[in-house]
Structure formats: structure tokens, C-alpha cells
């Protein structure tokens, strides 16, 4: 049975897709069977992993019942991927009726035993796509940048997470908050980290020990369809994401034991 990890933050520009890509590729480098699923209509996760997102079957075809999930899985040099595109943006109006919050959970069932991890990227919004991802999730990871507005975004997630836990997924766990674009030499970054730790405590979680430093390589890698580990293996974010992946694996194993 796959462990389903969802990357989420209703604020854009926090490194959510970059982290999804790095986590999926990093888990695969640890000899895990990994599927990456893009639930963001922008389709950036599939693009970042080198796929043509406009001319292929995608998660929208699965959620609308047009195709079985197995037929939408594409293989890359890193992991398997189910892409998305702008068609998914119609989900809020198109997904109606009872069970609309569990469409992704139901869709993933037939392939749960085929993977060790399923990594899901979500849109920067609290909508039906996000709720579907939360309903399917084992764990949430919340990337955020060390800025005050990013902190507000994390605070606003609490209500949605609580609602999903109450109604659809009582076992939903917040694995941790990940600080991205981090510069520990600035006073603001240090202050935001302290406030993030307070918020993490309020949602029964932690701030990851690893912070992701900034580099132009993070922005360049997706254009080449490569993970940060291949594009710039010696850059600071590649080192940080490598540590982050190890921390994720260790934290999940500790929680499974306890």
C-alpha cells in the first residue's frame, strides 16, 4: 500500500511544485517505486519532469471517468507521472454530486499496491481539487517561504485540514512545514521560522530540520525537464532537497512504528 504525500499551500510561489518534483525524484533515488500526480491545472509538475502536458491523457480524464487511471500513467527517467492541464480548472463546476470529494481517493485505489509512494502536487487554492488530494493523503507537507504573508497562508489551511479530517479522512497527518527560499542570515527568516514553529505546534506538527536555500538552478531545472539532482547536483538546493528526502523517509518510518 502506497504512502500518499500531498504538497499543499494556498499561497503560490512557495516552491510547492519544485518540492513535489524533488521529492518524487529523490524518493525514487532511494530505490522506491514512485508515482507523481499533478492536481494543479497549470500542469507544471509534469512539465518539470520532462513530459508533454498538452498532448497526453491526464488526471482530468481519470476524475471524469473517461479513462482508467492505468492508461494515463507515463514513465520518466525519475518516476511514473500522471500529468494535468488547464482542463482540470473546470473541476469546481464539473465535479458535482455526492462523493465529489473522494474522486481521487477512489481513482488511486487500483494502483495503490504498485507503488511505495505517491506524491501529489496541488493548486495554490483551497478548492475541490485540494480537498480531493487531502482525502486521498496519508501525509501533508506544507512548503512556505520565510515571509509574513506565507505564514498567513499556512494559518488559513488549518480550517480546511480540520474539515477534511472530520468528514473524509480522519487519519490525515501533517508531516511538517518546509521552509523554502531560505536565507538564515536574515532576521526576517529567523523570525518567520520561529512563528512557523508555533503554527506547527498548533496543528500537531513540526518544522522540518532541513531548509531549502535559494539558487537560480531551481528555476532553470524545469525548463530542461530535469530534476535538481541531475541539473545541478552540487548546488545548495540539491544538497538541501537530498537531506529533506531523507528526513521525510525517516519521519514517516518513525510514525509508522509508533
UniProtKB/TrEMBL annotation:
Pfam families per the UniProt record, alphabetical: AAA_31
Cross-referenced InterPro entries, in alphabetical order?
A: AAA_dom (IPR025669), DNA_Partitioning_ATPase (IPR050678), P-loop_NTPase (IPR027417)
Q: Which domain of life is it from?
A: Bacteria
Locate the coiled-coil region(s) and give their ranges: none
Question: Which transformation does this protein catalyse, written as a reaction?
Answer: ATP + H2O = ADP + phosphate + H(+)
Xref: Gene3D superfamilies = P-loop containing nucleotide triphosphate hydrolases
Query: Residues in domain AAA?
Result: 3-174
Q: Which family does it belong to?
A: Belongs to the ParA family.
Q: How does it assemble?
A: Dimerizes in the presence of ATP but not ADP; ATP-binding is required for double-stranded (ds)DNA-binding. Interacts with DnaA.
What name does UniProt use for this protein? Answer: Sporulation initiation inhibitor protein Soj
Amino acid at each position: 500500500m502506497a504512502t500518499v504525500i500531498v504538497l499543499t499551500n494556498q499561497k503560490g510561489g512557495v516552491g510547492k511544485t519544485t518540492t513535489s518534483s524533488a521529492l518524487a525524484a529523490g524518493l525514487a533515488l532511494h530505490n522506491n517505486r514512485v508515482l507523481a500526480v499533478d492536481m494543479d491545472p497549470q500542469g507544471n509538475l509534469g512539465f518539470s519532469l520532462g513530459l508533454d502536458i498538452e498532448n497526453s491523457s491526464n488526471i482530468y480524464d481519470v476524475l471524469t471517468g473517461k479513462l482508467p487511471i492505468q492508461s494515463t500513467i507515463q514513465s520518466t527517467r525519475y518516476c511514473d507521472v500522471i500529468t494535468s492541464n488547464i482542463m482540470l480548472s473546470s473541476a469546481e463546476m464539473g465535479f458535482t454530486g455526492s462523493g465529489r470529494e473522494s474522486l481521487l481517493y477512489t481513482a488511486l485505489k487500483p494502483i495503490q499496491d504498485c507503488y511505495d509512494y505517491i506524491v501529489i502536487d496541488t493548486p495554490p487554492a483551497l478548492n475541490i481539487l485540494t480537498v480531493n488530494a487531502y482525502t486521498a493523503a496519508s501525509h501533508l507537507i506544507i512548503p512556505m517561504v520565510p515571509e509574513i504573508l506565507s505564514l498567513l497562508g499556512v494559518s488559513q489551511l488549518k480550517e480546511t485540514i480540520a474539515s477534511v479530517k472530520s468528514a473524509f479522512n480522519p487519519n490525515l497527518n501533517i508531516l511538517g512545514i518546509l521552509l523554502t527560499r531560505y536565507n538564515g542570515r536574515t532576521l526576517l527568516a529567523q523570525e518567520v521560522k520561529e512563528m512557523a514553529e508555533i503554527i506547527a505546534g498548533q496543528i500537531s506538527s513540526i518544522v522540518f530540520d532541513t531548509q531549502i536555500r535559494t539558487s537560480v538552478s531551481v528555476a532553470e531545472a524545469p525548463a530542461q525537464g530535469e530534476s535538481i539532482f541531475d541539473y545541478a547536483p552540487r548546488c545548495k538546493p540539491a544538497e538541501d532537497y537530498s537531506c529533506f528526502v531523507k528526513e521525510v523517509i525517516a519521519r514517516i518510518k518513525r510514525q509508522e512504528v509508533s
